[in-house]
Amino acid sequence: MVGWTGLDQYDPTNPVGQSYLDDFDRAYGRRPEYCVPVVNRDLATVLLHAFADAHPLSPRGVKEALERVKMVPAASGAPGTFLSFGKWIRRGWMGAGYLVARQLDPDRVNARTVGRFGQL
């Protein structure tokens, strides 16, 4: 894998993601710096917004509430990535830098950002 470029959703320059990881580290004593924690934080944030705004709290109510989630800052992706849905928009993550190109360092432990989708 050394020398290959992969696409990831974790960007160490995203202040929303870093703030979340700071809170996680304070709570649990470790800092998982990879895509799964920040993506899961984003998913949980969207669901909490939808459940809180669903009237009635039913499948249709939640669907319609999801369509009202707009411009929520995302922890994953590059700085400026946000979460937004609509009647015809189902992808959620928006922004030119959502996918981040990273390469594994020769130490085979660390990775470095080499570019961002839309910014390469």
Quick summary:
The chain is of the alpha+beta class.
What does this structure look like?
The chain has 120 residues and is of the alpha+beta class. It has three helices and six strands, in the order E-H-H-H-E-E-E-E-E. The strands form two sheets. It has a three-stranded antiparallel β-sheet with strand order 1-5-6, with no helix packed on it. A hairpin with a 2-residue loop joins strand 3 (82-86) and strand 4 (89-94). The protein is globular, with a radius of gyration of 16 Å. It starts with a strand and ends with a strand.
What topology emerges from the helices and strands here?
Blueprint: E1 5-8, H1 15-28, H2 35-53, H3 59-66, E2 72-73, E3 82-86, E4 89-94, E5 100-104, E6 111-116
Antiparallel strand pairs: 1-5, 2-3, 3-4, 5-6
